[in-house]
Amino acid sequence: MYFDIIIRNGSIIDGTGRDSYKADIAILGDKIVDIGVIKGASKKEINAKNLIITPGFIDIHTHYDGQSVWDNYLKPSSLHGVTTVIMGNCGVGFAPCKKDDREKLIELMEGVEDIPSPVMHEGLNWDWETFPEYLDALDKNNRDIDVCALIPHAALRVFVMGKRAINHERATEEDMIQMRKISADAIKSGAFGFSTSRTISHKSCDGEFTPTLRAHESELMAIAKGLKDANSGFMEIVSDWNEPSPEEEFAVLRKIAKSTNIPIVFTCNQRHDRTEYWKDLMRLAREAKYDNLSIRPVVAPRPIGILLGLNGSQNPFSGTPTYKKIAHLSLKERVNIMKSEKIRNNILDEDPIKDSKFPLINRISYKQMYEFGRETNYTPDKNESLAIRSIKEKITAQELAYNILIKDEGKAFIYSPLVNFASNNLDACEAMLIDKNAIMGLGDGGAHVGFILDAGFPTWLIDYWCNKKNKFSKEETIRRLTTDTAMAAGLHDRGKIKKGFKADINILDWKNVGAGHPYIVNDLPAGGKRLMQETTGFEYTIVSGNITYIKGKPTGNLPGTLVRRS
Predict the structure, then answer these.
(1) Phi then psi for 362, rounded to 5 degrees?
(2) Which of 259, 383, 509, 528 fits 119 for a cystine, CB–CB 3.0-4.6 Å?
(3) SS (H, E, C) 493-528
(4) How far apart are CA 214 and CA 81, in angstroms?
(5) How much is the mean pLDDT over the chain?
(6) Which domains does the chain have, with CATH numbers?
(7) pLDDT tens per residue across span 23-42
């Protein structure tokens, strides 16, 4: 038989968690058609001797809602072996949307996910109003990976309620009937579920809380019933778990899951102000599982951290009046100006918080800031914090931060872990990952483009937890990146090396899998900038039977499409 691609001599980790084995793989069209000793010929043959063959990775938590409209390459995720993404998380997105509400959704996306408004104004063609029309717009673009979309609660709420949604008014019975129908129609047209946010960290660029913050239980139930009407989909939620208590809020999720049979996933991190809450949430999720309710935590394999720098979108002094006056200048100009003693003294004397539009600035301190050296250290020693270093160096922490920012022609970064690093170690992350009820995710690909770069979580999981720490086997590591996320999202045609499955494949030089130092590129619409990161060890990535990357370099093939949930 004649195939499109034959992969020979590799060790297969099929994604199920079973032991690896050696075999050849034959690909015809977009499917794996044979596994074993392949005797046929092919257009392309890949020798995978000494390499590991895995399914393509599936990332359940991303924000490529805008980038998938204007870009063919969903980097950085596609550089890290991800072949399918779920986007529309955290209740934010661009559909459904009436013409007069476009600015509201842009402001919300800018505030919540740090995508600059000029980028969205130029990049979005708004070739839609309803959610099915948005899916049709996504269908027109070819990409390097596949995308799946959730219907975002904020967009849905504003679409139905207008200004009442922004003002956090309670939805009426008529509002909820509309939301239920729109949600059902979205699922029937191909959406994979809906997402919502109940955290005060999610604000528009004007400081307004997300419209979904105080949505009543009855509203969430109505939307979930819309999914039930369509007989498909899952719910994604992020919350502070503050009001009235984790147990009482979790009880609402249990009620929704029990009434609708809709699977639910929620963000779970170790907060630095309440360091043990995550244990309660993990326990509540396990108890739900024992009661045959699918309410699963989505966790991160390392701290979710901010990269603060002059070359990014935020730095410790972004909110000061003096810095704001020079923020529009080029990096080189700002560095030269900031070397002036007068400017230095002005910035150091000013309040960086009072007029800041950065919603996370109140959550970080110099005790949680570290110089992010060229070795890309995500697990710094507590004695290396700027607060402790400043004592040793006999200067203030602010002065030390200032000195770091103007180093390396302004390209240096200060790293500040927001969650999962309360004890200056990864014990909490390890405990979360060990729980097989937890889903590995939260990389936020496509979002926080100027100060967070965590889309490389799959690479980190392999490099740190498997190779360096030997905490998980190769087989379990790959299971967490493939079948586990595929099943959680409702993707039943991928995530396994199996005959008849979609030919989404990574071929890895396992011991050399890693990521480089973050850097800034200016490749977004309107000249917008974002953080980028190269990878090593990814010898080949294949999507739908097409080779998309060789050694981290794009081939130009764009087989990625919109995936519609059936």
Answers:
(1) -75, -15
(2) 528
(3) CCCCCCCCCECCEEEECHHHCEECCCEEECCCHHHC
(4) 37
(5) 95
(6) 2-55+505-518+535-554 (2.30.40.10), 57-303+423-489 (3.20.20.140), 306-419 (no CATH)
(7) 999 999 999 999 999 998 99
